[in-house]
Design brief:
Layout: H1 3-14, H2 31-46, E1 50-53, E2 59-63, E3 71-77, H3 90-106, E4 114-119, H4 132-137, H5 143-148, H6 157-163, H7 168-173, E5 181-189, H8 194-198, E6 202-208, E7 210-219, E8 223-224, H9 236-247, H10 251-254, E9 259-268, E10 274-275, E11 278-287, H11 290-310, E12 314-322, E13 326-327, H12 330-342, E14 349-352, H13 357-361, E15 367-372, H14 388-407
Parallel strand pairs: 3-4, 3-5, 5-15, 6-14
Antiparallel strand pairs: 1-2, 2-4, 6-13, 6-15, 7-11, 7-12, 8-10, 9-11
This protein binds zinc ion (ZN).
Zinc ion (ZN) binds next to loops.
Length: 410
């Protein structure tokens, strides 16, 4: 493999949608995302891959194996969040490509077919959606959902996708291809600080957490802040405050990887001199283990009820999102661990709190993810940074893991 080529290509990609801040803006289904794909398609063809694009704009580069069968896949995405960085997505795409380049130089013919993939619109910044490309590929998106999507300029999804030479029908047809990938490995920046603290270039994703969102409304009695004595108040914000504080201690009761966060709160009427009448908040609850995550949801609901009863406040509770966490098979984690040992890298097992294309593929096929150290854990930001040395380690390990999966039964 060639580190200089990888650096030069990351640099070329960073110029597409470049902003004065040094970040990039490449929303899904924008001209910039398309240009980035076209640039990489050119490199994929040079590397000997047979390139095809499905109705969702997902790009596949295929390499025949000695035998027929479902392919081993690797890749990521090229779209970004607004004012995003240069590594989230592109690193996973270019790492897969660099492995293909190395194979070409070695005249390596895989036993099984290999597919390099670029999934469209992972971040979902344009339509406030996300993972739409990989969901289309796996048949996990409906016509109803696509019809409901409108971007900030008021353009419908159908209009946007038609301008790209596809249609909603062709978009949904992307799912007809899903059988071709049998296993998938994605390289991605860590978006956290575990590897930086451990002093290791790469780590093993132990599972991809699925979020559950619990919406709560605490209902009390609004009143004048001056005229209502402290005794007998029914202040829902005090209850909400107690609840938020209590939540902090609950995740550790169910698992070492569970997390719960209140990041959104709405106080009604939100006046300086008014005791609130109502407080709406949402708890984001995640874990890589579904039973633990669901147990945490139950504990949090129980806590909300207890606090409300104790303070004679009403509480309404609704669970409005419950996405299945995706486990990473132990066998896959072991294969990565084995590859690490060749490079003297200590295995760090890290749960992924964020969703990735692999999470969507992982609902039906075995997947694995490799995290690469990211400076200060920063992501979705122009300051996102991973050293070339760490990127090169990621490619070496990815190559080992892909060859292991290609050469052995799984
Ligand atoms: Zn990403």
């Amino acid at each position: 493999m060639n580190g200089e080529r990888l650096a030069a290509r990351l640099d070329e990609l960073s110029k597409i949608g470049k902003l004065d801040s040094g970040g990039v803006n490449r929303p899904g289904y924008s001209l910039e995302e398309k240009q980035a794909k076209e640039m990489v398609i050119g490199w994929m063809k040079e590397a000997g891959l047979a390139v095809s694009i499905d109705g969702a704009g997902n790009v596949f580069g295929e390499l025949n194996g000695c035998k027929q069968g479902r392919a081993v896949g690797s890749g990521s995405h090229l779209d970004s969040v607004p004012n995003g960085g240069n590594f989230d997505g592109p690193l996973g795409v270019l790492a897969a490509l660099e492995v293909v380049e190395a194979w070409k130089e070695q005249n390596y013919v895989p036993a099984k077919p290999f597919v390099m993939a670029i999934f469209s619109d992972e971040e979902g910044s344009r339509f406030k959606s996300g993972l739409t490309g990989s969901r289309a590929f796996m048949g996990q998106i409906t016509k109803e959902e696509l019809d409901s999507l409108v971007d900030e300029d008021g353009k419908t999804f159908a209009e946007v996708i038609t301008a790209f030479g596809s249609s909603v029908e062709q978009y949904l047809h992307a799912a007809s291809q899903k059988g071709k990938i049998g296993t998938f490995v994605e390289v991605h920046i860590e978006q956290g600080k575990v590897l930086e603290r451990a002093g290791e270039p790469v780590g093993i994703v132990s599972g991809i957490a699925g979020p559950a969102w619990v919406e709560l409304t605490f209902i009390g009695e609004a009143g004048h802040a001056g005229n209502t004595p402290m005794m007998g108040r029914k202040d829902p914000l005090v209850a909400a405050g107690m609840f938020i504080q209590a939540i902090e201690k609950l995740p550790e009761q169910v698992s070492g990887t569970a997390v719960a966060t209140v990041g959104k709160i709405n106080v009604v009427p939100n006046g300086v001199n008014v005791i609130p009448g109502r407080v709406d908040l949402v708890v984001d609850i995640r874990d890589i283990y579904e039973p633990a995550r669901d147990q945490l949801v139950d504990l949090i609901i129980e806590k909300a009820k207890n606090i409300s009863t104790g303070r004679q406040i009403e509480v309404e509770i609704k669970i409005n999102t419950r996405i299945k966490p995706v486990p990473i098979a132990e066998d896959f984690q072991n294969r990565i661990s084995k590859a690490f040992s060749k490079y003297d890298i200590k295995p760090n097992f890290i749960p992924s709190g964020a969703g990735h294309d692999s999470m969507i593929l992982g609902t039906e096929i075995p997947v694995a993810m490799l995290f690469v150290r990211s400076k200060d854990g920063i992501s979705h930001n122009p300051r996102e940074w991973t050293s070339l040395n760490d990127c090169v380690y990621a490619v070496h390990v990815l190559k080992e893991v892909l060859e292991d999966l290609i050469e052995t039964e799984n």
